[in-house]
Amino acid sequence: MSHLRLLAALLATAAAPLAAQDATAPAETPAVPIPAALTAEAMPPIPLDMAERARPYLEARGAGFAGWDPKSRAVLIATRFANVSQLHRVEMPMGARTQISFEAEPVRGSYAPEKGDIILVTKDRGGDEYFQLHSLKDGRLTLLTDGKSRNQPGAWSADGALVGFSSTRRNGVDSDLYVMDPRDPATARMVHQSAGGGWAITAFSPDKASAYVADYNSVQDVDLYRLDLASGKMTAIGDPKAEIAYGGMEIAPDGTLWVTSDQGSDFQRLGTLDPATGKFTPVTTEQWDVDGFDISDDGTTIVYEVNEAGSDRMRILDVASGTVTKVDALPAGQIGGIEIAPWGEIGFSFSSAKSAADVWSLDPKTMQLTRWTRSETGGLDTEVNVEPRIVTTKSFDGLEVSGLLYLPDPAKFTGPRPLIVSVHGGPEGQSTAGFMGRNNYYLNELGIGVFYPNVRGSTGFGKTFVSLDNGPFKREDSVRDMEALIDAVRADPAVDADKVGLTGGSYGGYMCYAAAVQLKAKLTATQCTVAISNFVSFLENTNPYRQDLRRVEYGDERIPEQRAKLTEISPLTRVGEIEKPMFVITGANDPRVPKSEADQMVAAIRANGGEAWHLVAADEGHGFAKKANSDYAFLAQLVFWEKHLLGE
What we know:
Elements: E1 4-5, H1 6-10, E2 38-41, H2 48-58, E3 63-68, E4 75-80, E5 85-90, E6 97-99, E7 108-111, E8 119-123, E9 132-137, E10 140-143, E11 151-156, E12 163-167, E13 176-180, E14 189-192, E15 199-204, E16 210-218, E17 221-228, E18 234-237, E19 246-251, E20 257-261, E21 269-273, E22 280-282, E23 289-295, E24 301-308, E25 311-318, E26 324-326, E27 334-340, E28 346-352, E29 355-363, E30 368-371, E31 389-394, E32 400-406, E33 417-423, H3 440-446, E34 449-454, H4 463-466, H5 475-490, E35 495-505, H6 507-518, E36 525-529, H7 535-541, H8 547-554, H9 560-569, E37 582-587, H10 595-607, E38 612-617, H11 627-646
Parallel strand pairs: 33-34, 33-35, 35-36, 36-37, 37-38
Antiparallel strand pairs: 1-19, 2-38, 3-4, 4-5, 5-6, 7-8, 8-9, 9-10, 11-12, 12-13, 13-14, 15-16, 16-17, 17-18, 19-20, 20-21, 21-22, 23-24, 24-25, 25-26, 27-28, 28-29, 29-30, 31-32, 32-34
Helix pairs in contact: 5-6, 7-8
């Protein structure tokens, strides 16, 4: 039974930022054709020879573990061989990756537990995040939902007979809860009429008479309930008024409720939860977040991952004895999708600085690791990729903040080097040490360093840290953290303090706009993706299902005092202070940060006589998922950064 990360399943608030960097070209130079879905405004052409130089870095791919086929010991993976990621089967370690879905949009999917007779697939249209559920067979999808509302898969029952999901089909806003046998979509029935957009079914009881439900209010506050599926009666687990976060849930065969929670701690710990009292009994002691876990079908073993300073470490818990075994064979990197097969083998995906994401398994009895895929890296030698080092400094109020600094090889690139600061989205996100992909082009070919700050509000550093930027009156404290970290890296002798740019997507895009206003003396240019320019217009126009969820983080624009502060701290309010060049990237279908946020910023900068490039994708949402679009965006950023970081 695959585990569920509540925060990721309920509301993903950050998009993977697009890359950035290199070279301007005269008009007569042969140029890269602009993909049909893209509109490039006030931008120079991309030289064809630049695309040829960067091509190997554009051809790297990764493979994500999507689950075991319980009947054949094959693995389901997600990888891209054409324009978007699709599902593939791998029958044996290092065997052929056989594509089984063939859609124009990226898809996600999972096998039904135990039965293995159906694959449930999730897909949207052009990044609009109005996900529909489908079954997949013989390369074709069969629609299971209404084709119009936003549907999010929750948990499978242990026997694979039922799947729980949330849907906005009733009114387009609230995430009502449904249960369905996906073999027959006519069996779908609403089991709870919800108020709000953060509801999800997280687990079924072994007898399928009840389900466990989570209501996500914020990254710090998740309420749990037990739902009787026959009567619809909802019973709270613990006190819903208490501010407690739960990050994952699994039900053992004996009915024991296992969760990760920050109850009684600054960090998420793994433990058991008494559904009658809400009492949490932790079994892990690490002073880091437990980010994910899974329980074996016989209930004897739990595998979990610990986020140690941005690197994932795997642990195996023997439930009966409480003994924890560390998996030391993996280097520092990122672990995802942990799932224990019915026969006990642990499947997962793993990436590191020197390895793209690939699928692995571990035999917990022998501790033998097995690699299932070896994703192509464009023919490049990944051993030359640099590892990051952690930079820490004190912010304006004495708070310690940190980031990951990647610097090019000093033997190849001598003297102080230009730097790109890349701010993660969220804000409840974290920059972690993993495979840099195409961003290695900056380091290995251009000699440009990359720095990833983790300002207050980031996850991974405890619930106190993540709460320090909440609301409009604390929001700019995170900008001051970013300034402190930029000052720290600019002081590094390996960094050229006069050649520092900044990029960010989503909330990181707001930070990008804010930096263009407030930190312009320290930066040469900014590149902002799917970015918030005005908090009031953002909150009024973001998709209705997520408005209240975002108000908890940023503030409530309906309250006059907060509206005034939100307007004051919005970068658009101070757009007249932007003096340095900016490049804005936008998905026209973005349901989170509407395209209008970019349009108004670009128009204001140009009205003031400033330089603002703008790249818009008609078939993308909150980040670019299609290879043709993301390749062009990356190359365009190369043009921008070469001009402003490598030019005279």
